Amino acid sequence: CGVFGIFGHPEAANLTYLGLYALQHRGQEGCGIVASDGLHLKAHLGMGLVADVFRRDDIFERLPGSSAIGHVRYSTAGGNDMKNVQPIVVDYSRGSIAVAHNGNLVNAQEVRNALEKSGSIFSTTSDTETIIHLLARSQSDSLVERLCEALMQVKGAYSLAILTETRMIAVRDPNGFRPLSLGTLDGAFVVSSESCAFDLIEAEYIREVEPGEVIVIDKNGMQSYFPFPKETRNTPCIFEYIYFSRPDSRIFNRMVYPVRKEFGRQLARQYPVDADLVMAVPDSGMAAALGYAEEAGIPFELGLIRNHYVGRTFIEPQQSIRHFGVKLKLNPIREVIEGKRVIVVDDSIVRGTTSRKIVKMIRNAGAKEVHVRISSPPTSYPCFYGIDTPSRKELISASHTIEEIARYITADSLCYLNLDGLHAALAQFGDHKIDFCEACFSGNYPVKFPRLRESNQLG
Ligand code: 5GP
Ligand code: SF4
Ligand code: MG
């Protein structure tokens, strides 16, 4: 998912719309904006793309005020129906509050069970709602205390944009799994999952919201708090660099593009092969393919062309649509590929179904050899922190060796950048000391989760 917020700007809802537009790649199932005019929160939410949900101008007339938050959703927790679209807005004893959440709580079910036992009635199936219930039940006087009290009871990944009538709050969990940045525009404060949204609205990047930081913004300015115990490791999600974030974003204090390109260079150093051209699976393999081609000294070609009116196929939760999606999305250029030994670079293999179709597509276009290079290690474990990887039994590398996967996808050779390679690439940027989460590759989960879910989903 993606979150965005702005405080202190007369065009708050309009700018949030633009911000969400720039974050659309982080979720395409649904979206919403909540605005405050200082007295009331007004919301508009819907299923579908930002441009479709906010198609009519009169929607913005009904979102007045100088502060707003927004969310783009894809379902990692909770179903994909209208009632789980965010921001979640509630009225409770002390006023109104809206919450937009990127990430996934690992103990939401346990917290929810306990709350339901003592009488709480939940209106969504989303993990985010547990935060709101905990906050509403807190007896503390200040909003910040109530929020911190709630957050102390949940575990997992959360980058939050929160709006009340008079305040906006930005929070990043103590591990800092998901990115969240702070910016400024005409004296207003802006927060966004990725800085590419700042570029679009011409906001200035200030810094990232730190792991474990709670930033409260009101008419008097900005206050920063670090309410969590200090011992938590900072474990930002390495997969944001590999795949999820846009290459033109700055996350975790680094531009994504050069990092992603370096993964490709490193891959070329680790796994060279004689070939006539290097091509990418667009768009996700593009930066790494360029890095690979540069390092290998082999020409880069556009061998596959992408139809840009098709979204990220994996975000469609239906298997039937995902299968159809590959041909809809990609078409090879025979004149580039025919008779050639090609290296195809992609960022990851999840189920292997797309990669198999792509290799076949390239062969049908006349390739003599197809060498697949993946700019991350085999994805062998599911993510519990907000990336929509399927369950372990659907992950092809959880149950197959690299040789078996190569045979399945019908590649002449298949190589993955290994964890050392990832670290070597990050070391070029001075990031080798950061303890990234890489659990989907290593199985080493930095935040533990209740046994029950572990055995259900990992088993
Ligand atoms: P596969 O060959 O596993 O079917 O598809 C691989 C493609 O899925 C890659 O191009 C990659 O960009 C994309 N992908 C990346 N991350 C994810 C994810 O978290 N979930 C899914 N399902 N696909 C992803
Ligand atoms: Fe990111 Fe993988 Fe960790 Fe999930 S498990 S937070 S995708 S590195
Ligand atoms: Mg891809």
Would you count the extended β strands for me?
A: 21
Number of discrete domains: 2
What compounds are bound to the protein? Answer: guanosine-5'-monophosphate, iron/sulfur cluster, magnesium ion
Mean pLDDT over all positions: 93
How do the helices and strands line up, and which of them pair or pack?
Blueprint: E1 2-7, H1 12-22, E2 30-36, E3 41-47, H2 50-53, H3 58-61, E4 67-73, E5 88-92, E6 95-102, H4 108-117, H5 128-137, H6 143-152, E7 159-164, E8 168-172, E9 181-185, E10 188-192, H7 196-201, E11 204-208, E12 214-218, E13 221-225, H8 238-244, E14 250-251, E15 254-255, H9 256-270, E16 277-280, H10 286-296, E17 304-306, H11 319-329, E18 330-332, H12 334-337, E19 341-346, H13 353-364, E20 369-374, H14 396-399, H15 402-408, E21 413-416, H16 419-427, H17 439-442, H18 451-458
Parallel strand pairs: 16-19, 19-20, 20-21
Antiparallel strand pairs: 1-4, 1-10, 2-3, 2-4, 5-6, 6-7, 7-8, 8-12, 9-10, 9-11, 12-13, 14-15, 17-18
Helix pairs in contact: 4-5, 5-6, 8-9, 9-10, 9-16
The site of magnesium ion (MG) has 3 residues, from loops.
GO molecular function, one term: 4 iron, 4 sulfur cluster binding
Binding site for [4Fe-4S] cluster: 237, 383, 437, 440
Function: Catalyzes the formation of phosphoribosylamine from phosphoribosylpyrophosphate (PRPP) and glutamine.
